[in-house]
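target protein:
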Amino acid sequence: MNVVSSVIENAKAPPFDEDVVLVERFLAGDRDVFEILYSKYYPKVFSIARGILLDTEEAADTVQEIFTLLYRNLSRFDKRSRFSTWLFRVAVNRSIQQARRNKHRSKNVPLNEALGTPSPEEDHSIDPKIHETLAMLPPADRALLTLFYWEEQSLQEISESIGCSLNAAKTRLYRARERFRQFFEEAKP
């Protein structure tokens, strides 16, 4: 085997991102494809917003703002990362901004609502202490925990979504877990 064929065999083509085709069609004037992106990503974006904001109505409003921003700024997507990564980064940042604006207001939303799980009458395994603990955390910590535990993103995906290195994402997630653990242990039973 010669050097050239070895290099060709070892070279990896970037993974195909079908969303890039939709973005290009949108930018070329086909506005109908935005509905495809909206339908595909609404559930995940809503879950991220709800996990950070801990309020279903607030999350729904924020998701509408996120998709409005997306519609207006789709030309800013530079295709160096996956479309979903870019969208999740926008969702996390916008949700954190909204949470910071609302920090003076008390959030008394049951955890099951924040997680989209059955009510306590249907599922007695949910500890209300978890909700109280999440409400004590800063929005950035809730964002990390949401992405990792609820959205089951890898650390690499999280680092891309929040715009930091892989090591920084690991460190931030570790610290968020530690703060959660500390608040959880200190909370009244």
Remarks:
- The chain is about 70% helix and 0% strand.
